[in-house]
Design a protein that fits this description.
heterodimer; A: 343 residues; mainly alpha; 11 helices; 0% strand; B: 366 residues; 14 helices
Chain lengths: 343, 366
């Protein structure tokens, strides 16, 4: 690693042979500082590896144990399950299920808001409106939980009763309808509110990056604003939108408090969304609810479910980042160039 | 070309660009009409703010579409419909924000007074006049806990985050493997579920110190895991904004790299860095699950972050509702009081971040 950055032109990482140039003379303090900042960067790797390692160390006994014979695991919060995988798979299903419902609600609204801020609202107000939406992300999740209990549950109750009465033949709305509102639907609505600002913020950034020339060209050819958005903004932003949704999904998967406080759960894999006490449970909320009352081995089992959550959200985030990198890198430029050269 | 000049010569011929268009304020008038209609329906069924706005939308959307469809054309009608839908989406997002803030303020304001802030909960004492047992309901232990844990987390994350950002911007070659790996891992770290960070801190401290290792320090470690990636990203962005001219001028004067970074680059970017750090603090201060895992909860006052459970505001809001004490109403109102204090803290931190950005902004754009 030579000392000085040469902008634009990457140099090889190996040391140069022969005498170093006289100008790049380094002092001891220089080397110490470089060492410090490099080790800070390395520590990021160490921390992430540490997170995985310590979770594995704690979880391994519970994952490998025999759940039907272990005295701790066959009773209490983990009782009634044949193995760790039988315990974690309905939870993993519930986590993904609640997040997907939340995303189905949040995505259209978030894209609409992002379009409103980037292409419809007055230019001078755009940053202020964006700030208001960002405020939604600043509200702590526990406050959303309390709000969900007090406001959202009674607010959505009539809707759920209606859905059950008239659309109960659809499996989604079947079952005994909730009487308090503590259903997975209520939880998903609150989750949707929480992921909304994330998807909005990323989409807004990407929409604003659409080349001005493309937009003006479309408008000059007589297209309406919506046609311009369809022609220029969406094709340009497609990969960014997908990754924004995936990042929102990552956030929803890991969200704990709002779900733990609102949904009245059971550890089963169920598609029903307006029942009570037979809702699917999410991993994070299951940990939060049972951790204080769990004993040693049961805690290890809960940590094991946390490890599964870690792996799921890691996978979602990695896919999102890979899409971002592929979208902003070569592929897009190549596509643009080809388009231009043919016309 | 000829058509345009034709239109110019004969003013009697109407301009084809402006015919078949709704009048300028048509949207506004339709909206007012829809609102009046919705209010009239409300007069029959009973008043409800949300239903009023929802009905206004229900009346407005088809009305503006049909009007435009008849007077203008299909494409413009669709454009108007989308414009309205997008605006509705924005207003829809405002509803939970306003509702949340209103609920927290109206519920929490009743209990929020000096006694709530200045006494710690749990300590029951006898009222000397009536000889009744009075349990105090303060949040002092939670306020102290929140400030200590968040402070410690900031102390851990800012040096690591800032130095990593410096490495990424100033030292690493763009194609070097360590830089690409760290860049990717920071992104991955942003996505760690907060409860996993809590479990990590719990596992780490129980493996090192034995089974009852709840402490404020452990919670601070959990929060740092969540805070570091945010700090790295905001610092990196700010360091990249520092013009290369400044660095080159410094090198040209024979200043070493380390002094250039410490004396030129960081001072130029300090406002942005401070804003980013403040926003990162505002983000983690409301985290409940990791603190709950790592520091547990308590009603008694504990100002020693190295040992024993510690109470924090978000955890107090959670436990006050989930594990209420003898007096359920009191516990619930304590929860709302803690939530209001927390929201106030977050809003103050956000404002501080904006003020820092505003005061120092001209310096960075020099």
């Amino acid at each position: 690693m030579p000392g000085r950055p040469t902008p634009g032109k990457p140099t090889q990482g190996k040391p140069r042979s022969g005498k170093p140039n006289a100008a790049a003379r380094t002092r001891p303090a220089d080397r110490v500082f470089k060492f410090l900042s490099t080790s800070a960067a390395v520590s990021i790797m160490v921390i992430l590896a540490g997170v995985a390692l310590f979770l594995i160390i704690r979880a391994l006994p519970a994952i490998t144990a025999s759940w039907s014979t272990n005295p701790e695991l066959k009773s209490g919060v983990t009782g009634g399950f044949a193995s760790f995988w039988a315990y974690v798979s309905p939870l993993a299903f519930g986590t993904v299920w609640a997040s997907v419902i939340a995303l189905l609600m949040a995505t259209p609204v978030a894209i609409g808001i992002a379009l409103f801020i980037s292409h419809y609202s007055p230019r001078r107000m755009a940053s202020f409106l964006g700030y208001i939406i960002d405020l939604l992300a600043a509200v702590p999740s526990v406050v959303y939980g309390l709000w969900g209990i007090l406001v959202m549950r009674p607010f959505l109750l009539p809707l759920q009763e209606w859905l059950n009465a008239y659309l109960g033949w659809i499996p989604l709305f079947s079952g005994k309808v909730t009487s308090t509102g503590s259903s997975i639907l209520t939880g998903a609505v609150v989750l949707a509110v929480m992921v909304l600002p994330i998807i909005t913020a990323i989409c807004r950034e990407i929409f604003l990056q659409t080349p001005k020339l493309h937009e003006e060209a479309a408008l000059a050819l007589g297209s309406t604003r919506w046609e311009m958005i369809q022609l220029c903004v969406f094709p340009y932003a497609r990969s960014g939108m997908v990754s924004a949704i995936l990042l929102g999904l990552g956030r929803a998967l890991g969200e704990t408090m709002a779900v733990a406080m609102i949904i009245s759960p059971a550890i089963i894999a169920s598609f029903r969304i307006i029942t009570e006490g037979e809702n699917s449970q999410t991993i994070a909320s299951n940990i939060a609810l049972n951790f204080p009352i769990a004993t040693g081995m049961q805690r290890d089992a809960l940590i094991g479910t946390g490890l599964v959550l870690f792996v799921i959200s890691l996978a979602v985030n990695m896919v999102a980042r890979l899409i971002v990198n592929a979208g902003t890198g070569r592929k897009k430029v190549f596509w643009r160039k080809e388009k231009v050269s043919t016309s | 070309m000829t058509a345009a000049t034709e239109a110019f010569r004969h003013p009697a011929v109407r301009n084809r660009l402006t015919t078949r268009q709704l009048p300028k304020r048509a949207g506004l008038y339709t909206l007012i009409g829809a609102f009046i209609l919705a209010a009239a329906v409300q007069g029959l069924t009973g008043f409800n703010w949300f239903a009023l706005l929802a009905l206004t939308c229900v009346f407005y959307l088809p009305a503006i579409y049909l009007l435009s469809r008849v007077k203008e054309n299909r494409r413009k009608a669709l454009d108007r419909l989308i414009r309205s839908l997008v605006t509705v989406a924005f207003l829809l997002a405002l509803a939970p924000l306003i509702s949340t803030l209103w609920t927290v303020v109206s519920k929490g304001l009743g209990i929020l007074n000096w006694e709530f802030i200045s006494t710690s909960g749990g300590a029951a004492r006898i009222n000397p006049d009536t000889l009744e047992l009075v349990s105090s309901s303060g949040a002092l232990q939670a306020i102290v806990g929140t400030l200590q844990i968040t402070g410690l987390a900031t102390l851990f994350s800012v040096p690591i985050g800032l130095l990593t950002a410096i490495y990424l911007v100033e030292y690493a070659q763009p194609a070097f493997w360590l830089r690409r790996t760290v860049n990717f891992l920071v992104d991955v770290m942003t996505g760690i579920p907060s409860i996993v960070a809590g479990l990590f801190a719990f596992s780490l401290f129980t493996l090192l110190l034995g089974p009852k290792a709840f402490s404020g320090l452990s919670a601070a470690v959990a929060l740092s895991v969540l805070m570091i990636p945010t700090v790295v990203r905001s610092c990196e962005e700010m360091l990249r904004l520092v013009p290369a001219d400044l660095r080159e001028a410094s090198y040209a004067l024979g200043v070493t790299k380390y002094v250039t970074i410490v004396r030129i680059v960081i001072p130029t970017a300090i406002a942005g860095i401070a804003t980013g750090v403040t926003l990162a603090i505002a983000r983690v201060i409301g985290e409940t699950a990791p603190i709950f895992m790592a520091a547990s909860f308590t009603d008694s006052f504990n100002a020693n972050p190295l040992s024993g459970p510690m109470q924090t505001l978000p955890v107090m809001a959670y436990t006050g509702y989930k594990f209420p004490g003898q007096n359920i109403d009191l516990s619930n109102s304590q929860a709302w009081g803690a939530a209001l204090l927390l929201v106030l803290l977050v809003i103050v931190l956000n404002l501080v971040a904006r003020i820092i950005a505003m005061i120092f902004a001209p310096k960075t754009s020099r």
